[in-house]
Amino acid sequence: MQARIIPIFEHKPVGGCGATGGAGKSSCGSAAGKGDLPPEVWEKVKNHPCYSEQAHHHFARMHVAVAPACNIQCHYCNRKYDCSNESRPGVVSEKLTPELAAKKVLAVAAEIPQLTVVGIAGPGDALANPEKTFKTFQLIQSSAPDIRLCLSTNGLALPDYVQTIQDFNVDHVTITINMTDPEVGERIYPWIFYKHKRWTGRDAAKILAERQMEGLEMLTAKGILVKVNSVMIPGVNDDHLVAVNQAVKSRGAFLHNIMPLISEPEHGTHYGLTGQRGPSAQELKALQDKCEGDMNLMRHCRQCRADAVGLLGEDRSQEFTTDKVAAMEVNYDADARKAYQAFVEKEREDQQAAMQAELAGLAEEAGHANVLVAVATKGSGRINEHFGHAGEFQVFELTAAGAKFVGHRRVDHYCQGGYGEEETLETVISAINDCAAVFVAKIGLCPKKDLEQAGIEAVEEYAHQYIEQSLVAWFKGYLARLRSGEAVAVERGQGSLRQGAFVA
Ligand code: CLF
Ligand code: SF4
Q1: How far is 170 from 151, CA to CA, in rounded Å?
Q2: CA distances (Å), origin 73, targets 86, 303, 307
Q3: How far is the CA of 82 from the centre of ligand 2 (A)?
Q4: Domain limits of the chain?
Q5: How far apart are alpha carbons 5 and 8 in whole angstroms?
Q6: Among all ligands shown, which has an atom nearest to the Cα of 122?
Q7: I need a labelling partner for 104 at 20 to 30 A (CA). Which of 363, 390, 460, 470 fits?
Q8: CATH fold match for the domains 25-327 and 361-502
């Protein structure tokens, strides 16, 4: 009998606040469910995949790349590529006119009934291109009024457009705020262009910070939901982001999304070329944990492209290139979309009820237990992806409060053309080696054995079932096996129960 324990990083147990699936009654977390939020806020977030963690399992967003210009320079951006405030650097979007963008939206909405939100997130700054941005919103609203409008900005021009934003019924705005202190800001922004003049250094950062805070206050005063994105830059603003979190929280921001800096040298950004590193997954999570309290925290961001299409974590943009859209016969059926959304609403209610039922008795059994598990899913809140086909694993934390989504790990597909890639398997294992189990719809014997050798149980028994309910059911069995000695676990810091390794 041998049990191998895989080294894992220290991880603070999180209480019931924001527990997924409404396991704990709380007003916090993008995991907040129907009963956790005021009804008018729930109406706004229930089908927005970025503002609600639950929604991101069911609903899709798309971006239309109509905004090429920018009015500031960030050290993590190379203008050859898209705005990295709200999209991954290193990819270039097909630029669209407002008319083409509106046609593309109808084409996508006709094909993907899950589409509920259209965002303008670059490739430059939405508000540095106000004519194109608002013209696009106007065209979308007149042809597809059931689609929510979302806008992302660096905030410099924001105070000038808050009224317009409201007039165009844009009810979700993201501001990227990386600092409130100009001393920190001058290390992130070399210049801004404001009032017909280029500003540099601390003056530039001071103006930007003031305009961002002013815009945030104006939006929240109008009841517009604001998400704040912050790029975590180790050694530059990592410690400072706790103060940023406080500042935006006190001004009414709904959600804070702390994203890791991406700074590959091949993207040619200032940070990439000067060796500025991004944070590790552990550093990012530690900062997110520190900021999580009574502030909504987004942990399911996929740093998508300025022309992203689909559920978060999938990219269907290549199915809707300009050429393909031009050749498409668009059949936008508002009733079919409504019916789909009603179906999802029902599924979500069923999932919540199933989860609540499964929670019975867990608190006494779990005590301070705290275990991470990985899930292969292609959406709908179910365990419905094969191990070999997964391009990412969603990671959930299991505690006495239930199952809480805490992040995702991108991986290469293990299955390549019908065969398993040994090298890829190693990287998959290292991506999820802090997890006690991986839940899949199906897995082959070989990878299953290798995972078990690495102390990760491959679980197929809940294939196609609801994620949270299945995880809690498995967790109860796992705790029983720990008690009987069939499984072992490591006890670390503050009495939290860590990774278990199974005895074959
Ligand atoms: Fe797009 Fe942003 Fe609207 Fe979402 S993305 S404009 S709020 S519809 Fe979402 Fe993408 Fe993360 Fe942005 S996953 S990068 S947070
Ligand atoms: Fe680049 Fe966006 Fe920063 Fe402008 S706001 S410099 S487009 S990352």
Answers
A1: 7
A2: 14, 19, 21
A3: 8
A4: 25-327, 361-502
A5: 9
A6: 2
A7: 390
A8: no
The tokens describing 46, both together, are: 């229930």
Task: Determine whether the shortest distance from the Cβ of 174 to ligand 2 is under 6 A.
Answer: no
Distance, C-alpha 472 to centroid of its chain: 23
- List the 197-200 sheet strands across, edge first: 72-73, 191-194, 197-200
Model pTM score: 0.81
Q: Is residue 37 within 8 Å of residue 29, measured between CB atoms?
A: no
Q: Does the Cβ of 73 fall within 6 Å of ligand 2?
A: yes
pLDDT tens by residue, 34-64: 667 888 888 888 889 999 888 888 899 999 9
Give the range among 27-31, 340-344, 383-387 with minimum mean pLDDT.
27-31
Helix (H) or strand (E) holding 418: none
CA 62, distance to chain mean position in Å, is 14
Q: Beta strands 297-298 and 309-311: pairing type?
A: unpaired
Six token digits for residue 63: 């971006």
Is 354 in a helix, a strand, or coil?
helix
Give the domain 361-502 fold: Nucleotidyltransferase; domain 5 (3.30.420)
Residue at 277: amino acid letter:
R
Q: Residue 228: in which H helix or E strand, if any?
A: strand 225-232
Kindly list the protein residues whose Cβ atom lies closer than 6 A to any atom of ligand 1: 50, 61, 63, 86, 117, 119, 121, 150, 152, 172, 174, 227, 257, 301-304, 312
**Which atom of ligand 1 is nearest to 117's Cα?**
8
Contact predicate 123/306, CB 8 Å: yes
Atom of ligand 2 nearest to the CA of 73: 6
Q: Are 401 and 24 in contact (CB under 8 A)?
A: yes
Residue of the CA atom closest to atom 12 of ligand 1? 86
DSSP per-residue codes, 384-416: --BGGG-SEEEEEEEETTEEEEEEEEE---SEE
> Considering only CA atoms, which residue is closest to atom 11 of ligand 1?
301
CA dist., res. 67 & res. 49, Å (int): 22
Query: What is each CA distance from 178 to 51, 241, 245, in whole angstroms?
Result: 19, 7, 10
Q: What kind of architecture, by CATH, is found in domain 25-327?
A: Alpha-Beta Barrel (3.20)
Residue with tokens 């706790």: 242
495: confidence class by pLDDT, cuts 50, 70, 90: very low
